[in-house]
Write a structure and sequence with these properties.
Number of strands of chain B: 24
Distance between the termini of chain A: 32 Å
Number of helices of chain B: 7
Mean pLDDT of chain B: 92
Strand order of the largest sheet of chain B: 5-4-13-8-9
Strand content of chain B: 25-35%
Distance between the termini of chain B: 31 Å
Structural class of chain A: mainly alpha
Largest interface: A-B, 57 and 66 residues
Shape of chain B: globular
Oligomer: heterodimer
Strand content of chain A: 5-15%
Low-confidence stretches of chain A: 1-22
Structural class of chain B: mainly beta
Order of helices and strands of chain A: HHEHEHHHHEEH
Number of strands of chain A: 4
Strand order of the largest sheet of chain A: 2-3
Number of helices of chain A: 8
């Protein structure tokens, strides 16, 4: 059936790993630390992966106006793309409004997403400082960071999002359960 | 059965006689409604034979077979400019068999379809491993491969019917975000051994090379480690760009968006990354305002594709046909009700019935011409039964947006018109 290559596969694995590491090494090449650094952009909820740098709400207002407002509205109220602000208290209603402020559980996710995917036409084009700044600005529009606030890799993971406890993991793939199993 | 009967499953224009309509469509269920063509009343009307077109390097569909996907956006956002589309749906009402044609496999992209040169594409595997490695497409093709027929389903499949049922919808609108292809590639297990994964890593980040850099955290359960693979082949040819050329992750039975397209990075870690996609997007908001997270497996599901929304049937013999699938495993049985879920009859399944793949089901039916409702429900080999709409909504509410697998009901009125309804 679809595992018709199982035997061959098992043979290759045994040979490759036990008899000859050199053969296994024939597939692909070692990644160098420098090139890994180029691509290793993910940020975890504990802040792991956040780069050096910082940005203020005030700087973020300008970054937002220049790069984000065309799609998300002048104050993040939404436009041709997602609304980013408001909606708190609506999640259990018939018309839930899911925004960064009402729904997103981690502030680190906002930095990571802007850094990797925004602005839509030129993803990754914002500097690290501008990314911290616009993150701070969007959070301030939601009343989560003060208007004179500033974010960096130490303070961002400490931001407590209003809907942090709004998620129920599926038992089969519950991170806490998978961690215990190991 | 008579030769005409199955043709009645197709919509019939009001101004065309039954005989003329049947003849004009004798090319079969795959064709679009071609009203202008006169049929062949007798064999003498069949056109003479003669030399055909030159042979070609690439086969196109018959000009009589007009089959297309339709680009759409969110629920209720249809007939839109393709530039605003977020998905493109498979025309199940015009397809037969178990396998979706490659160019009609549904598409969901989050930042368009990148135009990637395989010579310059690389896959980096790193994180909690002893040997971080970089692979080219050619590297993957030299490795031992597997081929497997599986369905891939967008979690938004069925989302038109959460709150209401628009009667104008076809099965392409309601269920066009699931398709089944044969995929070929390298088992994840093989790659894991090459990089010597740290055994204590329990999650893997998979990231695409699209503009959005779509990334998902994948739990490394035994099932996933044993079944996931990195594919470069689709129905015997290189992946189509819309489906991840030159390489994608295939995760049999799991959410479509976990099958990361244009794959360029796998990173091993010991906790989920909580990306936008697994927090803000692909989570299911319940009635109490809490959201189900990591509901990664696609559920037991089925839908009747013939007859289905916007078709018109005639009293007498009709053949009911549809598709069933489950992310838990193999479909064990499909039952059909032609009296609005009061009584149920076993349908036949078309072999082969493969785990985590769509299977065609069929049943003979004689319609007495009275208004009724038809509905299918599937059961998989783990004992999961596709829920009726009422109990499904009782559990999930109407705000979840994703993972809709309630039974699909089509109503049929006294004129034979088939329409989308809630049960």
């Amino acid at each position: 059936m679809y595992w018709h290559n199982k035997r061959l596969l098992a043979g290759m694995l045994t040979f490759g790993l036990l008899a000859s590491p050199a053969l296994a090494f024939d597939f692909g090449r070692r990644a160098t630390p420098d090139e890994i650094k180029l691509w290793d952009i993910d940020v975890g909820p504990d802040g792991k992966g956040l780069p050096d740098g910082s940005g203020t709400v005030a700087q973020g207002k300008q970054v937002f106006s220049d790069n984000c407002a065309a799609c998300h509205g002048d104050n993040g109220q939404g436009g041709i793309k997602d609304r980013l602000v408001g909606g708190q208290g609506t999640l259990a209603s018939d018309m839930p409004v899911k925004t960064v402020g009402s729904f997103w559980p981690y502030a680190t996710t906002l930095f990571d997403y802007i850094h990797r995917a925004m602005p839509y036409p030129t993803p990754g084009s914002l500097s690290t400082d501008d990314t911290y700044a616009v993150t701070a600005y969007i959070l301030s529009l939601n009343g989560i960071v003060p208007a004179d606030g500033k974010l960096d890799k130490a303070s961002l993971p400490k931001v407590r999002m209003p809907n942090r406890d709004g998620f129920v993991p599926e038992p089969e793939f519950d991170p806490a359960r998978l961690a215990r199993k190991k | 059965m008579t030769s005409k009967a199955p043709i009645d499953l197709l919509p019939r224009p009001a101004n065309v006689s039954r005989r003329g309509f049947v003849g004009g469509l004798s090319a079969g269920i795959l064709g679009a409604v071609a009203t202008e063509a006169a049929g062949a009343e007798t064999l003498a009307d069949v056109p003479d034979r003669g030399p055909g077109a030159d042979l070609s390097a690439h086969s196109e569909r018959s000009r009589f077979a007009k089959i297309d996907r339709i680009p759409e956006a969110g629920p209720g956002k249809r007939n839109i400019d393709p530039g605003n589309a977020i998905n493109s749906k498979t025309p199940h009402q015009k397809l037969v068999g178990n396998i979706t044609p490659t160019d009609l496999h549904y598409e969901r992209s989050h930042s368009g379809v990148p135009d990637l040169d395989p010579a310059q594409h690389r896959l980096l595997i790193h994180g909690m491993v002893q040997k971080p490695l970089v692979f080219s497409v050619e590297d993957l093709k030299r490795m031992p491969s597997i081929s497997r027929v599986v369905f891939i389903e967008c979690t938004g499949n069925g989302w038109e019917n959460w709150k209401k049922a628009d009667p104008e919808l076809t099965v392409q609108n309601t269920h066009g975000l699931v398709s089944t292809n044969e995929w070929t590639g390298v088992p994840l297990k093989f790659l894991i051994d090459l990089v010597s994964r740290d055994k204590s890593s329990s999650w893997m980040l998979a990231e695409g090379g699209d503009g959005a850099g779509v990334d998902r955290s994948i739990p490394l359960t035994d099932e996933i480690v044993n079944e996931a693979f990195v594919a470069y082949g689709q129905n015997g040819e290189p992946l189509r760009p819309a489906h991840g050329f030159p390489m994608r992750l295939v995760m049999p039975g799991f959410e479509g968006n976990l099958n990361i397209k244009w794959l360029r990075r796998l990173k091993f870690g010991n906790q989920p990354w909580m990306t936008r996609w697994e927090t803000a997007r692909y989570t299911q908001l319940l009635a109490n305002g809490k959201a189900r997270q990591f509901q990664l497996r696609m559920e037991t599901n089925s839908v009747i594709t013939q007859p289905s929304g916007m078709m018109q049937i005639q009293p007498g013999y009709n053949r009911i046909s549809g598709l069933a699938w489950s992310g838990h495993g193999r479909i064990a049985s499909v039952e059909i009700s032609t009296d609005g879920a009061k009584t149920w009859t076993q349908a036949q399944l078309s072999n082969p019935v493969l785990p985590k793949a769509q299977v065609r089901f069929q049943m003979d039916w004689v319609w007495d011409g009275k208004p009724t409702r038809i509905v299918s429900r599937s059961t998989d080999d783990k004992g999961n039964v596709q829920p009726d709409r009422q109990s499904f909504i009782a559990a999930m509410g109407t705000n979840a947006l994703f993972h809709y697998n309630a039974q699909q009901t089509w109503s049929i009125d006294e004129a034979g018109r088939v329409r989308n309804v809630l049960a």
